[in-house]
Design goal:
Blueprint (H helix, E strand, L loop, with lengths): L1 H74 L1 H9 L1
Helix pairs in contact: 1-2
Amino acid sequence: MSLHRHDENLLPRLLRLEGAMERYHDELNHLKTRQDAQHHDMQGIAERLDTLNATISRGQWIISGATGFFMLENMGLSEFLKKVLL
C-alpha cells in the first residue's frame, strides 16, 4: 500500500519537474538567441572598425605622400633626397 501511495506522489513531482525542465529549456533557447544576436552585433562592429582602420591608413598614406610631394616641390630634388635618405 505504501508503494502505491509513493507512486501517486511521484507523478505530480515528475510533472512539476517536467514543467521546470521545459521552462529551463525555453530560457536556454532565449539566452542562445540573445548570444547569437550579440555575436552578430559584435561582428558588425568589428567589420566597421576594420573599415575605419583601413580608411585611416589610406588617409595617413595620402597625407604622407602629400607632405613628401610638397617637401620635394619646396626643396628641390637633391635637397629632398638628402633629407629623406639621411
